[in-house]
Write a structure and sequence with these properties.
Layout (H helix, E strand, L loop, with lengths): L1 H22 L36 E7 L8 H13 L3 E10 L17 H13 L3 E10 L16 H22 L3 E6 L8 H14 L3 E6 L15 E5 L12 H22 L3 E6 L22 H18 L5 E9 L18 H9 L13
Parallel strand pairs: 1-2, 1-8, 2-3, 3-4, 4-5, 5-6, 6-7, 7-8
Length: 378
């Protein structure tokens, strides 16, 4: 009983800290009204794609960490940052979630058992920077009680004004974290497909976020829905995931993967010319499961370890690096994902930790701009 009461008290104190943290920049509190556009004061630091030759340090070479439990402290995530730095990466993506109940909900909340407090974020970001890593904040929305196959891409709240106000309060928390810790970048939204046509609402959010945070802003589009995003012109980078279909059969040869990447790359780069902003691949990853190249987004396809799955994951890594290396229009990639537990040959999830794919990643992290990975053969 005493332990439960102490946990409740800790939760109340964390809520108070976060509310005070937000109110320092918003005296009206966390539910700010974003129904009317406001002018932007902060200057955008836009990048002109291909305007200068990149060197190794210009290219974003990162891995994402999902921070999904902080009640017992952040020490495992600090160790994960060290592991990423030791691989040779120059960037870490810190991903954490806000929750709405289902696709019809309008309220978004932070779960204080899972999201770092401002003090914890400060420690994480300071440690990452001390290890020479840029930090990109990657907040996402998850559904805590989805109905059927619902996910964040199909949300339809009864009141869009209420949802966008709640979303602004959510993203503002991370903008303030980014400001206070001089983070490199912030993803203002991720795979929110049903919201992407609301250009004016998103412009309002982006303009308001720029008043708080002055690093790079990007949106992370779903791999098959990047053309429909209506507000690319207001951002610094084009963000997109990479869960494309690359084969029709499990564990295909490398040549098959490269052949399927070719028209995808051509289509993306032709479209990129119309936006004229660099592309950052915000989620590059494949499970170590047979068929990962067919349905890269499906981590339930074969939920058991296998030699074939490890081989397919490695070949998918090779195919991506060989396809996209030395592409001036690409600002870099954040690989999905580095875990605080698991890894190794018995892990069939996305992490490359302790798997053959890790050797590909290490070589890419430590390569020059035009380096073509040769490891692994066919």
């Amino acid at each position: 009983m005493l332990q439960r009461n102490l946990l409740k008290l800790a939760g109340v104190l964390i809520v108070a800290i976060i509310v005070l943290y937000l109110r320092a920049d918003n005296p009206m509190g966390i539910r700010a009204d974003v129904s009317a556009p406001k002018s932007m004061k902060a200057q955008r630091r836009s990048i002109n794609a291909g305007s200068h030759k990149k060197n190794k340090n210009d290219i974003i070479r990162g891995i994402a960490i999902q921070i999904n439990y902080t009640a017992d402290g952040i020490e495992p995530y600090l160790r994960a940052i060290d592991e990423i730095a030791d691989l040779g990466a120059n960037t870490v993506g810190l991903s954490t979630a806000g929750y709405q109940e289902n696709a019809s909900s309008a309220s978004i909340n932070l779960d204080l058992r899972k999201c770092p407090t401002p003090a914890q974020f400060k420690e994480l970001i300071s440690h990452a920077k001390s290890r020479g890593l840029k930090v990109i904040l990657m907040p996402v929305i998850l559904l805590s009680n989805p109905r059927g196959s619902e996910w964040r891409g199909v949300i339809q709240p009864p009141d869009w004004d209420e949802w966008f106000a709640s979303y602004f309060a959510f993203i503002k928390y991370f903008a303030k974290v980014g400001l206070d810790n001089d983070a490199y970048g912030l993803i203002v939204g991720a795979e929110l497909i049903s919201t992407e046509s609301f250009r004016e609402r998103w412009i309002t959010i982006i303009d308001e976020v720029r008043k708080i945070f002055h690093g790079k802003l990007l949106y992370s589009a779903n791999w098959d829905h990047y053309r429909q995003v209506s507000f690319w012109d207001k951002l610094d980078l084009i963000g997109m995931t990479t869960y494309h279909k690359l084969s029709d059969k499990e564990n295909p040869p490398l040549e098959t993967l490269l052949k399927h990447w070719a028209p995808i790359k051509k289509e993306i780069l032709e479209w990129q010319k119309t936006i004229n902003k660099p592309i950052l691949f915000t989620e590059v990853g494949w499970c170590s499961q047979p068929g990962a190249s067919i349905e890269a987004w499906n981590y339930y396809r074969h939920m058991s370890p296998s030699k074939e799955g490890l081989e397919e994951q490695k070949k998918c890594y090779l195919a991506f690096v060989r396809t996209w290396s030395n592409t001036p229009q690409v600002a870099g990639a954040i690989w999905w994902e580095w875990t605080i537990n698991g890894g190794g040959p018995n892990d069939y999830g996305y992490t490359p930790k302790g798997k053959p794919a890790l050797e590909v990643l290490k070589q890419w992290f430590n390569s020059s701009d035009n380096y073509q990975i040769q490891t692994g053969g066919q």
